[in-house]
Design brief:
The structure is a single chain. Helix content is about 40%, strand content about 20%. The chain is an alpha/beta fold. The protein has a seven-stranded mixed sheet, sandwiched between helices. Helix 2 packs across helix 8 and helix 4 runs antiparallel to helix 7. The protein is globular.
Length: about 475
């Protein structure tokens, strides 16, 4: 379908509040727009409205809900360029590369994928005497809190399966990127009935009001481990169901039979997708002695061919850090590596007079495994490359942290890669790629990276309640 939100100005006007808080472009410092600030009272209103319409939404057939999700995907595609431009200005990510246009395209793709899934009843027993079936009913109202790194895409990860299963949804976007999510919802809500999907911008108090609300039956949160733990404590009082996708510090292990030149591009983008601001990006890379220098040189070459700058300039594929707090974390961790005597292959020295939160693409070699840049999640454009001489030691290093979101293994012998992958403690392990999420393949973390699954049929089950019917 066509939509009247086909230009950036038109799209922004649908969510801009002249009396609201200013949002600044992290690349230039210019004002992008203004957002209204919600309150806990707004959460009360949104949840009450969502509860009121939930039974009518659930009463629609699965096919009817799927049709609306597909039409919402059409609407996103009709406004794709305007959405990508707003996202680039507010979040900082470039239009090109695996960034703003990629993210908007993923929103449509995830909607279509969820529209196509069907979670049919499962026959558990049928022996002539007993027949038992497992059905999946809507959970009710889903409260979803999203992050600032992939604000539109992760919002869709949360609301697409929820709506498909007959739930209604109240979203609280990050206070750093509220305009992007509000604009996305404005586009989608051209197709949906009123109050089925609502977005309430605001600060942490607004998020806490949502996740602690007695009218919320399921909480979906993507963000820090610390906040996830706080949500768990609150949810315990009302036994709300929870899906948590929390922090990670993903390890990649290169095996001795890998081809450095062949894997360098995928290694680089596994680490530097969205300028490293991705939960399931590769944050530390283990390379054997025999390939160490070759892998380092190949990565430096890819970095030199990947320009960083203002997102609206078509040539750029890397952008700024989204906010000053994250910039300071990256700067601190890289400085810790430099102070320890680690070797900076490229980057490591920001340009002081440059506007925006740009930290240069940084590759660090000859670094100890216990260095803060390795042990802490940097969530930015800096990759430590750790040398190993014993594969068992590399696997032990990969597993020793208390997080376990993603991991990867790189080599030419698939069986050898699979053998190493089976020993890694992570919710997902990719072979010869990293962070390659797919709407058909379940995704989630272990240890302090959270629990619960998203995507695919398992993702639908997570926003449902099981109901056994027997006769």
């Amino acid at each position: 379908m066509s939509t009247d939100l086909t230009t950036f100005a038109g799209l922004l006007s649908s969510v801009d509040d002249p009396n609201g808080r200013e949002l600044l472009d992290p690349a230039t410092g210019e004002v992008v727009g203004r957002t209204r600030e919600g309150s806990p009272a707004d959460i009360d209103t949104a949840v009450a409205a969502a509860r009121k319409v939930q039974s009518d939404w659930a009463a629609r057939t699965s096919a009817e809900r799927s049709d609306l999700l597909n039409k919402a995907a059409d609407a996103i595609e009709a406004s794709a360029e305007a959405l990508a431009e707003l996202l680039s200005r507010e979040q900082g990510k470039p239009l090109n590369g695996p960034n703003a246009r990629f993210e908007v395209g993923a929103c449509a793709a995830w909607l279509r994928a969820n529209a196509a899934f069907e979670l049919d009843p499962e026959v558990l027993v049928d022996d002539g005497e007993t027949h038992a079936e497992l059905h999946y009913d809507p959970v009710g109202v889903v409260g979803a809190v999203g992050p600032w790194n992939w604000p539109m895409m992760i919002s869709v990860w949360q609301f697409a399966p929820s709506l498909k299963m007959g739930n209604t949804v109240v979203l609280k976007p990050s206070e750093y990127t509220p305009l992007s999510v509000q604009a996305l919802v404005a586009v989608v809500n051209q197709l949906l009935p009123a109050d089925v999907l609502t977005v309430v911008p605001g600060d942490g108090a607004v998020g806490a009001a949502l996740t602690s609300h007695d009218g919320v039956d399921k909480i979906m949160f993507t963000g820090s481990t610390k906040t996830g733990q706080a949500i768990m404590r609150t949810a315990a009082d009302k036994l709300a169901r929870i899906t948590l996708e929390l922090g990670g510090n993903d390890a990649g292990i290169v095996l001795e039979d890998a081809d450095p030149a062949a894997i360098a591009g995928d290694l680089f983008w596994g680490a530097f997708i969205n300028t490293g601001q991705t939960c399931a990006a590769m944050k530390r890379l283990y390379v054997p002695d025999s390939l160490y220098d070759q892998v380092c040189d190949a990565l430096v070459e890819v970095a030199a061919q990947s320009p960083m700058g203002v997102g609206l300039k078509e040539e750029n594929v890397l952008g700024p850090l989204q906010n000053k707090q994250q910039y300071d974390i990256v700067a601190r961790l890289v400085q810790a590596a430099k102070d320890s005597g680690a070797r900076v292959l490229t980057g490591g020295d920001p340009v002081a007079e440059q506007p925006g939160y740009f930290y240069p693409t940084t590759l660090v070699a000859d670094i100890d495994n216990d260095n803060p840049l390795v042990a802490e999640e940097q969530f930015g454009p800096a990759l430590p490359i750790i040398r190993y001489s014993d594969l068992d030691q590399a696997i032990a290093w990969a597993n020793e942290l208390e997080v376990g979101l993603g991991s990867s293994v790189w080599g030419s012998d698939l069986d050898a890669c699979k053998s190493v992958a089976a020993r890694l403690q992570a919710g997902s392990t990719w072979i010869n790629k990293h962070g390659a999420v797919d709407p058909r393949v379940p995704f989630g973390g272990v240890k302090k990276s959270g629990f619960g699954l998203e995507f695919g049929l398992e993702g639908l089950k997570q926003v449902s309640v099981p109901h056994v019917i027997s006769w």
